[in-house]
Amino acid sequence: MRAALLSVFGNDSPKPISAIGDALGRSNEYPDPTLVGAFLDNHDFPRFDSLVTDRTKGYNAIVANFLTRGLPTVYYGLEQDMSEGRNDPYNREALWLYGNFATDGETYQRIKKLNAVRAVLGKQEGWYNLVAEQLETEGDDIALKRGPAVIVLTARGNGASGSWKVSKAGFQGGARVIE
């Protein structure tokens, strides 16, 4: 999944957003894909932020990491936007060199909100035991469904705009949705 997210949202040779749906479709290769650790970077890989410079795309990747399947893992520094670290030893630098453990940064706050969203969704019976399924794609956008949640991701990037009607979302007219 990490490779798919980087191939769609990363700086190098972007692939179609359907690569995310393809990766989710291969989840059945694992005995239990809901127990697989989901991560964007760790001490053995380049830091995520060194590979994805468009913050909008980066936030979409973080949402996918938290809401599509498995156990989301945040390698220290992602929440502080540590972007040096394409190679050792820079992908293992000390956290206290960045941000003074700030809790008011945008990425930190988004991760905090995603944890709260997971907690709410986790109260839905069986949600943690599900893997998101692709509903539909259009251009740079993909809609996924995991239990009662519809997850819409875009690779349009910062400053891009547009609209898209997700016809297979399953919501009735006037349904209340939360971004």
Helix-strand sequence: HHEHHEHEEE
Unreliable runs = none
**Proportion of residues in β-strands:** 5-15%
| CATH class annotation | Alpha Beta
Overall number of strands = 5
Mean model confidence by pLDDT = 92
Question: What is CATH's topology name?
Answer: TIM Barrel
Class computed from helices, strands and strand pairing: alpha+beta
3D structure, described in words:
The chain has 179 residues and is an alpha+beta fold. The protein has a single domain, classed as Glycosidases (TIM Barrel, Alpha-Beta Barrel). The protein has 5 helices and 5 strands; from the N terminus they run ααβααβαβββ. The strands form 2 sheets. A 3-stranded antiparallel sheet has the order 3-4-5, covered by helices on one side. Strands 1-2 form a two-stranded parallel sheet. A hairpin with a 2-residue loop joins β4 and β5. It is globular and about 50 Å long. 26% of the residues are buried.
Write out key terms for the chains shown:
single chain, 179 residues, alpha+beta, TIM Barrel, three-stranded antiparallel sheet, two-stranded parallel ribbon, 5 helices, 5 strands, 13% strand, globular
Chart the SSEs and their pairings.
Elements: H1 2-9, H2 18-25, E1 37-39, H3 48-51, H4 55-67, E2 71-73, H5 106-121, E3 133-138, E4 141-146, E5 149-154
Parallel strand pairs: 1-2
Antiparallel strand pairs: 3-4, 4-5
Helix pairs in contact: 1-2, 1-4, 4-5
Can I get a quick summary?
The protein is about 25% helix and about 15% strand. The protein is of the alpha+beta class and about 180 residues long.
